[in-house]
Design brief:
Elements: H1 4-19, H2 22-28, H3 47-53, H4 59-63, E1 70-71, E2 83-84, H5 99-103, E3 130-133, H6 148-152, E4 160-166, E5 174-180, H7 190-194, E6 202-205, H8 207-210, H9 226-235, H10 239-252
Antiparallel strand pairs: 1-2, 3-6, 4-5
The chain binds iron/sulfur cluster (SF4) (2 copies).
């Protein structure tokens, strides 16, 4: 475990340049903002809210029994002084008592983010990121038997499953391909950590970056209630329409705007 002395040492190292004067803060100003690929500890608030709330105290680092968390230093591009992790190096081992989240004094890491519908916090609800698979470099997609990521996943058969597929080369044997379930993947990165190929074929990215969005124009007829969703949207004008209508009403009303 990282000692307090080491944490403070890292902090001093990370912020020494900044601490030596306003000009130097200016020089590292761009680096104070995190790269969009930065992975945060479990329970982290989203984006800017996290950056505003985190006081860079390093207590989460100190609490982590696996030395997963690092404090960003100049050059890391992770938001100087804030905690992040790199799963290929050390993943989050999903401690069931979430010590990093619990110890945070400001709510930058917030237990509410680990709760669902007012229930107790649960590390299984963490949304640190989402694992994506690069099919071309995943040897399971070539037909070679590999289920290392599947077996390492703390939520095996929930967050990653194996999908059987007929091997077109032999016409007989089934390939077993890993498939990530985005509803259940916490982004702990254990799969990325254990992946056997040279550069991991499964990689965790922040969910915002990893996930697409189908918008409001498509209906999934097989999903109960999806048609109603479209009707609800059509019946409820969006805020921009409301603002435009109210501005037009004002201009069209009998007011004295043009009478002066
Ligand atoms: S849940 Fe455990 S392993 Fe994961 S970052 Fe927090 S303290 Fe470290
Ligand atoms: S404990 Fe909270 S405030 Fe302190 S560095 Fe970690 S996230 Fe930031």
């Amino acid at each position: 475990m990282t000692s307090r002395r080491e944490v403070i040492g890292k902090l001093i190292k990370g912020t020494a340049v900044a601490g030596s004067g306003g000009l130097l803060w200016g020089a590292v100003g761009a680096e104070a903002l995190p790269d969009e690929t930065t992975l945060r500890p479990p329970g982290a608030q989203e984006g800017e809210a996290f950056m505003k709330a985190c006081i860079k105290c390093g207590q989460c680092l100190e609490a982590c029994p696996y030395d997963t968390l690092k404090l960003a230093t100049p050059g890391d591009k992770m938001g100087i002084g804030t905690p992040y992790f790199e799963p290929r190096d050390i993943p989050c081992y999903m401690c069931t008592n979430y010590p990093c989240t619990e110890v945070c004094p400001t709510g930058a890491l917030d237990l509410l983010q680990l709760s669902r519908e007012g229930g107790e916090p649960d590390i299984k609800h963490a949304q640190m990121g989402l694992a994506l698979i690069h099919r071309e470099s995943c040897i399971a997609f070539w037909g070679i038997q590999c289920d290392v990521c599947y077996r390492a996943c703390p939520l095996m058969d929930v967050a990653i499953s194996l999908e059987p597929e007929t091997n077109i080369q032999t016409g007989r044997h089934a390939n077993l391909k890993p498939l990530v379930n985005s509803d259940a993947c916490t982004g702990c990165g254990i799969c990325e950590h254990v992946c056997v190929v040279e550069k991991a074929a499964i990689k965790v990215l922040p969910r915002d970056l990893a996930m697409g969005e189908f918008g409001n124009h498509y209906i999934r007829s097989w999903e109960a209630g999806d048609e109603q969703r479209i009707k609800d949207i059509q019946e409820k004008p969006d805020k921009a329409d409301e603002d435009l209508n109210s501005a037009l009403d004002y201009l069209n009303d009998d007011n004295d705007l043009f009478e002066k």
